[in-house]
Write a structure and sequence with these properties.
The chain is an alpha/beta fold and 316 residues long. The chain folds into 2 domains: 199 residues, Rossmann fold, CATH 3.40.50; 91 residues, Rossmann fold (3-Layer(aba) Sandwich). The protein is built from 14 helices and 10 strands. The protein has a 6-stranded mixed sheet, with helices on both faces.
């Protein structure tokens, strides 16, 4: 297992620079007062293809040899990684196939196809996803770019925190949601080298809390098909991301479905930006634990903005 290094992150940032946005950091005085802390939102919902995963996908795609690229790339994804891999593949002019659960938001399926990718549907479980994906790779010979258990992907995601450190000084901690752990791993990679005193916190839904339980148990615990409004956080940790989580994460905090939806509505109303339920989990965790983080300066990574506008979680 290759563990990505600081040099991998630096090389990734240079490689992907022509293909990503340096996303802005936004603040809200109202939310700061509500939280009792200073929050700095790193807006990856404004990233290319609408999510931070454009970073890791671009690093993987543009790091391929011409021979490997010619066979195309493939992945399995509930949405954003597949969308971003299709985006990166389109930029390089190579094929991309994405295995997606049939329950994934239509907006995300449409986005994959919009960037020229091919969608192959599966059942909404890890086991079905991996079985259907094996068939796709056997058929195409494409390069597998894992959504998170991939050193190239983690090095790409790590560039987000590098930018955040350049944009905001004197942070006490950085929050990101955790599903498979790609963004958290990238955050750990960057902060452990460039700002080791800054704490890394992961936030997770109570109804998909396998990373929380893994963290407490000291080994990976995987759920096959958790059910949460935060559709981007349903996948389990893998060996590479577990390395970063177990060695560098300060804590994993969980929140309820109602807290996720309330935090999402709060950001939509007060910050006037579109972000998806998975992105609201960190703010929900901060608001649930206000006493713990009172007076701190916290970076909050808003990981994506790909929302099915016809099925918003507060619309019954």
């Amino acid at each position: 297992m290759y563990i990505p290094t600081l040099n991998d992150m630096l090389a990734a940032h240079e490689r992907i620079a022509p293909h990503i946005h340096r996303t802005p950091v936004l603040t809200s005085q109202f939310i700061n007062q509500l939280a009792g802390a200073e929050l700095f939102f790193k807006c990856e919902n404004l990233q290319k293809a609408g999510a931070f995963k454009a970073r890791g996908a671009s690093n993987a795609v543009f790091g391929l040899s011409d021979e490997a690229a010619a066979r195309g790339v493939a992945t399995h994804s509930s949405g954003n990684h597949g969308t971003c891999l299709s985006y990166a593949a389109g930029r390089r002019g190579i094929p991309c196939t994405v295995v997606m659960p049939h329950t994934a938001p239509q907006a995300k399926k449409d986005a994959v196809r919009g960037y020229g990718g091919r969608v192959v549907e599966c059942e909404p479980s890890t086991s079905s996803r991996e079985a259907v994906f094996a068939e796709v790779v056997a058929e195409t010979g494409a390069e597998f770019v894992h959504p998170y258990n991939d050193a190239r992907v983690i090095a790409g995601q790590a560039t987000c925190s590098r930018e955040l450190l350049e944009q905001v000084e004197n942070l006490n901690g950085v929050f990101a949601p955790i599903g498979g752990g790609g963004m958290i791993s990238g955050t750990c990679l960057t902060l452990s080298h460039l700002a080791p005193k800054v704490q890394v916190y992961a936030a997770e839904p109570e109804q998909a809390d396998d990373a929380f339980r893994s963290f407490k148990a000291g080994h990976i615990i995987a759920d096959d098909a958790p059910n949460t409004v935060a559709d981007g956080l349903k996948v389990p940790l893998k060996e590479l991301t577990w390395h970063f989580v177990s060695n560098h994460v300060a804590d994993i905090l969980t929140v309820s479905e109602d807290e996720i939806i309330d935090a999402m509505k709060l950001i939509w109303k007060r910050m006037k930006i579109v972000m998806e339920p998975s992105s609201a989990v960190p703010l929900a965790a901060i608001l649930r634990n206000k006493e713990r983080f009172a007076g701190q300066r916290l970076g909050v990574i808003i990981t994506g903005g790909n929302v099915d506008l016809d099925k918003l979680p507060w619309q019954n």
